[in-house]
Amino acid sequence: MKKLFCLFLTIIMIMGSVCGCGMQSGKNDEGGKGDSVPVVLNEVAHSIFYAPMYVAIEEGYFAEEGIDLTLITGFGADKTMTALLTGEADIGFMGSESTIYTYKEGASDPAVNFAQLTQRAGNFLVSREPVDNFSWDMLIGKNVLGGRAGGMPEMVFEFVLKKNNIDPFASITQEVDSIRYQADSIPEDKLPEEPQPIQADESFDDFIYNFASDEVLQRQRVKFPLPYYNGEKKMEIDEHHWMHDNLFTKQHYYTLLFDKEEDMDLVGDTSLTSVQVEWIFVKTRMMKRYYFERIKGAWILEAINQRPIEPNDNENFVEFFGRFATDSLFQSQRVNDPLAFVTSDPDDDFSILETSLDLNQWFAFKPELPSERLSNINYGQRNDDNSTMKIEGHRQWFFQHPLFPPESRRMETV
Alpha-carbon distance 35 to 65, whole Å? Predict the structure, then answer.
């Protein structure tokens, strides 16, 4: 049996380049030296090869230069480029080939390479069995699992083979595109022309998990070309440029926001016909909203809208929560003492226990609080940026606190 050699992609480019597209400062040119410019950097992958950048972030070098940096991992050059072109990111850290592809496809505002961060390829060729005295001609006649076709790791691999007088396509039995292999194994002509309802469509919660987890289903349930609004600017994403969106399925929890306790009954309502899924970015004060409609029994994504959170003279929830989640001193000032605590009875699934926690017990029992972004599913509940009451559902944890006036804003109930 032929050995299968794998091109193990520790990073997915030979030359990490930083790309910018339409980046605008959050401060004007008249700001003083103490002004901080918010910048969202989307990196293609989280890798040890970028350790110097992580050290610079942790040591505060960016802050010293007046940059309030938010680092997001895109998990793929295609997703990083999409974030850059749609305005979700100010700077994209990815392989330089991505800018060439988007330019050739006619991007109206093409990305520009302006900095080089790495000089070596972080690619490794590995096999299932030990190989003594390796030479490149050992690959002749073997199957090789490469990277994404057209991606930098794949092109570097082909370049190395040619440098060693090996034709990548004539000498190697099969070179598999590891990124698209599974998706391409499903014939497109077998996909239904019109979305067909499935059992998961009955409940939006069931549907959205399937939608975020299943690439084929997701493409069936997006209305192309998909309108994408970034503030007042509108663009359209066609099916060719759509990148699979995992939403919040890659994390072990998601949050829900309500202004009133009775609105929580909307969760699981099977009569809903319109629902919005939201990402609320704490540092940048931006909201990204996905609009879903149930059409002939099937949930369809019809538009995406990204906008700033409305400013207000009072402290809004996102501003409060961003500080509450990261500042323990501020947290101790804004938690009611004693704090009402309600939980399920471990001895009876149909009963609840009600008690209270003091401040020390809160720090011992508090849930994980997201510091970078909040998720939300809007089933029809009122959700005002500046409402005077918020209930944030986190797994089985719920807390609420009055938001008015700002100085009395406290956590009242868990």
Answer: 10
For residue 301, the number of C-alpha atoms closer than 13 Å in the C-beta half-sphere is 28
Residue 18 has a pLDDT of 57
Q: Where are the beta strands (DSSP E) in 21-105?
A: 37-43, 67-73, 91-95
- For residue 368, the one-letter residue type is E
| Helix, strand, coil in percent for the chain, rounding step 5 | 25, 30, 40
Cα-based distances in Å from 107 to 112, 228, 378: 12, 15, 33
Task: Please name the residue that has the structure tokens 């997006």.
Answer: 222
What pLDDT digit, counting tens, does each position of 280-309 carry?
988 888 899 999 999 999 999 999 999 888
Q: What is the DSSP letter of 367?
A: P
Is residue 37 within 8 Å of residue 23, measured between CB atoms? Answer: no
More confident residue, 313 or 290: 290
The dihedral over CA atoms of 286, 381, 394, 336, expressed in degrees to the nearest 10, equals 90
| Predicted pLDDT of residue 385 | 65
Tokens for 371?
């510091």
Is residue 279 scored above 80 in pLDDT?
Answer: yes
Backbone angles phi, psi at 253, to 5 degrees: -160, 165
Any bridge partners for residue 176, and if so which? 145
How is residue 261 annotated by DSSP?
G
Q: Where is 233: in which H helix or E strand?
A: strand 233-237
Distance of CA 375 to the CA centre of its chain: 11
pTM of the predicted structure, to 2 decimals: 0.55
What confidence tens digit (pLDDT) does each residue in 177-204 have?
A: 443 334 433 344 444 457 778 888 998 9
Q: Are strands 143-146 and 4-9 parallel, antiparallel or unpaired?
A: parallel
